């Protein structure tokens, strides 16, 4: 009877019956087993272990109880004990398929991949028709880089269970790794269609989308991409290029681009047409767009919009596009060039809005959008009065351009300071980042379920050999140089039970980070202002330290790296990001242009510099064309960081290898977006050990100089 209640989900009734049984016989094994299962379901794994041990003491031949005990041990993170209990279950009942399969899951979590494969195969030898076991086997084979075998396992899982969304997703991941990009994308589309509520599947879809180049689109793809942009696991900036590529096949946009190039556009007409493209509008609101043709279209339309406003011809028609353009220009920090005539019109419009507010008259929302496309509204003394405008039409503009900057300003005084910031270099760098929060972001891609550090690093796509590394139960993590918090929130969501301390020089970025972290409901991050070069006296040690895109801006990068290494516990892990000297030759050319023209890191000069770079790129300068291919080129602060930074050091892989040796750190491998580069490397060097040879990677980089165009991002371990 208790079992029936348990299976029906009637926990209270099942518990009551078990207790009645135990009053008559305190060692009754079935009742103890069921109470143990109920305790685990209630989240009390420790009590579950006690009860299940009592049950097994009374009857050690209960295979199911051994399995339940293993599950409780898993909840406690005691994987060795869990594996032992599953083996005990198998000893009692050798043909218990579930025990073999679950043992495989534990072994995979421990990084014992060959043993995991063997367990899955034993389960399938008993019953070959279990789709989930084929899927799990595929995951283990993928972790071992046996991708063709993994694909076969995923296909078999789907044959057995055609609507198995997770298997479609995993098939897509494996197909992507072997270079079958379009087939992978189709698998991911199928996965999200089957389980649209599963955020993890949208992450796979987004990662697959990054590699896509569309030659055509179907009618439902724009709606799918619009849904994708709003999922919490998706970082919009990573999918801008393929989404724009897809939109280019939209007949309205392709026609508009042709007409715009010929100078044949009317703002009212075009804005109304673009207002009917929700995917484009949403993308504009979320991220800069790294496409020169689209940029020129927006520059022309913005100028036409302000001209219509000055002439009294701007109306509600096309307001959705006008509002999106205001959001987009705020996101890219007004990086577009502005003529003298536009400046006159903008000043006139600002005065007109101020007069309307002073007279307590309504301000047409399209005028607010036009002004917001040229100036951040929080810079006007009357900004808070804009609440009188129709919030439905421009509510998002007011939120981003008025309300949120006010919150950030109030937050600055509440951020703790852990060190002095005295050095000239640190003060100069801090000043660079105080003008605007850098990098500005609206949403980022979060990991939907954190996992132990060792599990993340041992499994695909990283596949690092961590040897005897044991994941801390509650890892303490330092983010040294967190900017506006995007890095910190991703790390905090990536690793199970993490507690993160995120540090940066600039209060502007930290205030932005605090607000965004609260918006996301993340509570395991502490933010503070600090200088890496002053952290020696922090008095804390960490299990993991991440510093990406930061050390190369220190006056003495290796000295700063040493300070961070000293804060790392023995055997702890580091993720480091450094600029590649080989991959930044285009930046060297850009800096030469800046020196020649005597440009300063001011908004006006950055806009002029960008125009020069675009003109040179269009004239055939390959280095300038490479600069134009970088996403950082398409927003003000990121362009300044890319080309105008006052302190920058680049590295070669031999230099990094020497630094690792001096710091007593062991190189574990690179973390790279996409699998194409790693696949090419392994085709040349199939030995798995080759991926940790910096000498081989150096040779490979010299043959592929754009390989680390972003930066080297790699993991290492303290010896």
Write a structural description.
- This protein has 719 residues and is α/β, with parallel strands linked by helices.
- The protein folds into 4 domains: 163-231, Tetratricopeptide repeat domain (Serine Threonine Protein Phosphatase 5, Tetratricopeptide repeat, Alpha Horseshoe); 250-411, no CATH class; 417-580 and 650-718, Vaccinia Virus protein VP39 (Rossmann fold, 3-Layer(aba) Sandwich); 583-643, no CATH class.
- Helix content is 58%, strand content 7%.
- An 8-stranded mixed sheet has the order 1-4-3-2-5-6-8-7, sandwiched between helices.
- Helix 7 packs parallel to helix 9 (131-143) and helix 21 crosses helix 22.
- The longest helix is centred in the middle third of the chain and has 21 residues, at 391-411.
- The radius of gyration is 29 Å and the shape is globular.
- The protein starts with a helix and ends with a strand.
- The relative contact order is 0.06.
List the strand order in the largest sheet. Answer: 1-4-3-2-5-6-8-7
Calculate the terminal CA-CA distance, rounded to whole Å.
57 Å
CATH level-four homologous superfamily name of the largest domain = Vaccinia Virus protein VP39
Q: Structural class given helices, strands, pairing?
A: alpha/beta
How many distinct folded domains?
4
The CATH architecture category of the largest domain equals 3-Layer(aba) Sandwich
**CATH topology value of the largest domain:** Rossmann fold
The Cα radius of gyration reads 29 Å
Low-confidence stretches: none
The geometry reads as globular
Average pLDDT: 93
Number of strands: 8
Regarding quaternary structure, how should these chains be classified? Answer: single chain
- Assign a percent range to the helix content: 55-70%
Strand content: 5-15%
Count of helical stretches: 35
> In the CATH hierarchy, what is the class of the largest domain?
Alpha Beta
What does the main sheet amount to? 8 strands, mixed
């Amino acid at each position: 009877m208790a079992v029936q209640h348990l299976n029906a989900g009637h926990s209270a009734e099942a518990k009551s019956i078990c207790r009645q049984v135990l009053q008559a016989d305190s060692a009754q094994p079935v009742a103890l087993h069921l109470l143990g299962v109920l305790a685990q379901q209630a989240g009390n794994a420790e009590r579950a272990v006690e009860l299940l041990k009592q049950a097994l003491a009374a009857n050690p031949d209960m295979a199911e109880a051994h399995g339940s005990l293993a599950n409780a041990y898993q909840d406690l993170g005691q994987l060795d004990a869990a594996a032992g209990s599953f083996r005990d279950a198998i000893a009692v009942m050798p043909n218990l398929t579930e025990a073999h399969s679950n043992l495989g899951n534990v072994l995979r979590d421990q990084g014992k991949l060959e043993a995991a494969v063997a367990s899955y195969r034993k389960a399938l030898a008993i019953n070959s028709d279990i789709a989930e076991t084929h899927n799990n086997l595929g995951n283990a084979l993928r972790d071992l880089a046996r991708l063709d075998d993994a694909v076969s396992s995923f296909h078999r899982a789907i044959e057995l269970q055609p609507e198995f969304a997770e298997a479609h997703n995993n098939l897509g991941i494996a197909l992507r790794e072997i270079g079958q990009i379009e087939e992978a994308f189709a698998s991911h589309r199928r996965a999200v269609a089957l389980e649209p509520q599963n955020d993890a599947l949208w992450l796979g879809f987004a990662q697959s989308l990054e590699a896509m180049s569309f030659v055509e689109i179907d009618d439902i793809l724009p709606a799918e991409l619009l849904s994708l942009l709003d999922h919490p696991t998706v970082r919009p900036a990573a999918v801008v290029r393929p989404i724009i590529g897809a939109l280019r096949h939209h007949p309205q946009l392709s026609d508009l681009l042709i007409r715009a190039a010929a100078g044949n556009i009317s703002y009212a007409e075009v804005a109304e047409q673009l207002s009917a493209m929700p995917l484009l509008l949403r993308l504009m609101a979320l991220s800069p767009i790294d496409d020169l043709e689209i940029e020129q279209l927006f520059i022309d339309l913005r100028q036409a919009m302000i001209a219509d406003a000055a002439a009294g011809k701007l109306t509600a028609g096309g307001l959705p596009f006008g509002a999106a353009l205001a959001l987009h220009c705020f996101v890219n920090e007004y990086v577009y060039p502005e003529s003298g005539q536009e400046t006159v019109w903008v000043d006139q419009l600002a005065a007109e809005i101020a007069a309307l507010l002073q007279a307590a008259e309504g301000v047409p929302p399209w005028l607010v959008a036009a002004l917001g496309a040229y100036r951040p509204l929080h810079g006007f003394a009357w900004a808070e009065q804009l609440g009188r405008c129709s919030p439905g039409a421009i509510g998002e503009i007011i939120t981003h351009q008025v309300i949120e900057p006010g919150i950030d300003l109030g937050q600055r005084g509440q951020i703790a300071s852990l060190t002095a910031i005295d050095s000239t270099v640190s003060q100069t760098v801090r000043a660079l980042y105080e003008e605007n929060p850098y990098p500005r972001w609206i949403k980022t891609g979060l990991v939907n379920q954190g996992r132990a550090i060792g599990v993340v690093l041992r499994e695909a796509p990283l596949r690092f050999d961590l040897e005897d590394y044991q994941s801390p139960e509650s890892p303490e993590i330092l983010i040294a140089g967190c900017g506006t918090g995007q890095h910190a929130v991703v790390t905090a969501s990536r690793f199970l039970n993490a507690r993160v301390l995120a540090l940066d020089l600039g209060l502007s970025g930290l205030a932005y980070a605090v607000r965004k972290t609260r918006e996301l409901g993340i509570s395991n991050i502490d933010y503070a202002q600090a200088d890496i070069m002053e952290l020696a006296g922090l008095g804390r040690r960490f299990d993991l330290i991440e510093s990406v895109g930061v050390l190369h801006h220190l006056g003495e990068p290796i000295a700063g790296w040493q300070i961070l290494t000293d804060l790392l516990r023995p055997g702890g892990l580091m993720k480091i990001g450094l600029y590649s000297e080989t991959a930044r030759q285009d930046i060297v050319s850009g800096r030469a242009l800046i020196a020649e023209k005597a440009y300063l890191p001011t908004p006006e000069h950055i806009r002029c510099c960008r125009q020069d770079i675009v003109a040179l790129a269009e004239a055939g300068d390959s280095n300038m064309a490479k600069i134009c291919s970088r996403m950082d080129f398409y927003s003000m602060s990121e362009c300044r960081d890319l080309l105008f930074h006052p302190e920058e050091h680049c590295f070669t892989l031999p230099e990094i290898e020497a630094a690792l040796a001096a710091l007593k750190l062991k190189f574990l491998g690179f973390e790279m977006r996409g699998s194409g580069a790693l696949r090419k490397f392994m085709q040349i060097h199939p030995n798995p050990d080759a991926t940790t040879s910096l000498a081989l990677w150096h040779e490979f980089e010299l043959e592929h100089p754009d390989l680390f165009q972003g930066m080297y991002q790699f993991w290492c371990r303290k010896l």
